Amino acid sequence: MHDVFIIEAPGKVRVFQDLLRKVGVEAKVQATNGHICEFPKEPRDLGIDQAFRPFNRILKNPETGRYIREALTGAKNVFIATDADQEGDVIAWDVAELIADIWPEPFRVRLKGMDEDSVREAITDARAVRKEDAVPGRTRAILDRMIGFTLSHKGVKVGRIRTPLLGICRDENLPVARLRLIAPSKDRGRPWVAECDVLDPITLKIAKQLENVQFPELDKRRQSQPYTSKPKHTGEVLVRAGDVLQLKPHEAQQKMQDLYESGKMSYPRAGSKGLSPTIAAKIAEIVKKSRYNFEPANVATKTDADVHDAPYPIGAVNVTHDPEKVGDHEGMRVLIARDLVKAGQSHIIEEAFGSVAGDHLRKLGFSDAVSDFVAKLPWRRENGPRYPGQEAWPESQVINRLPETVLLEAVMKKGLGRPSTWARHVEKFMEDGLVDNQLKLTGKGKAWAEASPEVLLDPRLSAAIESACERVTDAIMIDPNREPWELLSEKIIKALPADIRQKLIEAIADVKQRPKIDLTAMYRSTVGLDEVLEAAKEKTYSLGPKAPTLED
Q: Which entry of 214, 247, 436, 548 is 20 to 30 Å from 153 by CA?
């Protein structure tokens, strides 16, 4: 008899098995290889009935289902140990449904990291798999399917994220270049810095001219109260990786995932901007070796609503190393660690009189518009403890940014998607060829924008749908005839603007209501291994509602 742990990624089976041994658990580990269910990639029909039941959501790979079920043979305890996020919640419930006939009461282990402490904590907190946890993810899948299938036409793909991204690029001037200006200080202290996007009245030509200007010394005008920067969430880390390491968001995300699976990085898709006191203390130990000031008490604390800490490196990392020179994987760890050092320090922001810089430009022949614009920029500098990678730019510079990085910032600002999907949405959007490297609509992009629902081009609608998927109430959980994701999908669609609402409802109006989906029956009909299943059923049993502890 042995424990069975069902995890997501095949690549972390061996690492996870070793971690289980370290916490005193001998177990068999089986991977799901991500989601076990999906809508067909080449759909012939919508696959959702008039009751919003996604009857065409099928097993992605029946063989994976077979491996999962056979892994339970001789099991003592069964734990579904998927990531502690909404995708992990959906996978956990899908697996629970798949094995319901042979193991009706598996336990959910919400993995927050691939290190010994995280695994021990997750097992200690094991609980029953909960249907309500899967509702946001299942609802989102139904809505995305309905919007994409129903509103796409004549080669124009419409999507809940893709279309508002198209609208952002159409309606907003997303700059892929920034201008950083440097001016000396009259007090002989650190120089003053002013930054702006290359937007009207600053054209790229003018920015190149300003790059060569030698500005006069500026006087200090005022200073702020001491402040501490917060740890960066996943999106902000990806932006930093783009600007510093020239990694596209999906590339940086993959580096973080690799590190996570090898136990060198915390959960790589966190939306939190805080750390628990325990983690802050661990970062302090890392920093101490590099002789930088760091006070764990200064670090913003993870809120109760946050499942994960902000991303942080696990194990030793040398923050004095240059992240651009140690390879992309270690560079990500160093970059994150460097920013965390600053999060444990207090600094003061000082501002200078920018009017002197504006007057200087006027004398050089720059227009009043440009001179006034530069004069009104916040000319700033930072005073406080030193930290690795501290701002120390010797001269003015035009910075060319990756268009994917700029687009990611827009995605986060508009509230589109979630930390686990940000990088993937940006990658797929750029692959569609709807914008060029300056984020201007191509001919294809303009045609798609003209053929897309205007209301869906507004990112506020997508953000509202995203938020609504989180509203899991008791009322939708107790209907004996319908699943909660069906009820929530119906409620959200009926609240959409009239033109979209009508099209979506008409798309399913004539689709006969199907029976409740049974993943076990679906598996049996697909694979036909009844004799194996019966044998597995005889050799397994349930422990009941109480999760076993590590001591058990």
A: 436
* Confidence category of residue 290, pLDDT binned at 50, 70, 90: confident
Q: What is the pTM of this model?
A: 0.88
* DSSP string for 342-357: HHTS-BEEEEE--HHH
Q: How far apart are CA 498 and CA 504, in angstroms?
A: 10
Closest CA to 107 of 90, 87, 86, 93: 93
pLDDT at 182: 97
Mention every residue, 6+ apart, whose C-beta is less than 8 A from residue 270: 233, 234, 306, 307, 308, 309, 310, 311, 419
pLDDT tens digits, one per residue of 43-87: 678 999 999 999 988 888 888 888 999 999 889 999 999 998 899
DSSP characters for 22-84?
HTT--EEEEE--S-SEE--SS-SS----TT---TT-EES-HHHHHHHHHHTTTEEEEEE--BS
SS3 438: coil
CA distance 89 to 132: 9
Calculate helix-pair angle for 459-468, 484-493, nearest 10 degrees: 150
Q: Which DSSP helix (H) or strand (E) runs through 96?
A: helix 86-98
Which residue is associated with the tokens 């030509």?
A: 205
Cα(459)–Cα(466) distance, rounded to whole angstroms? Answer: 11
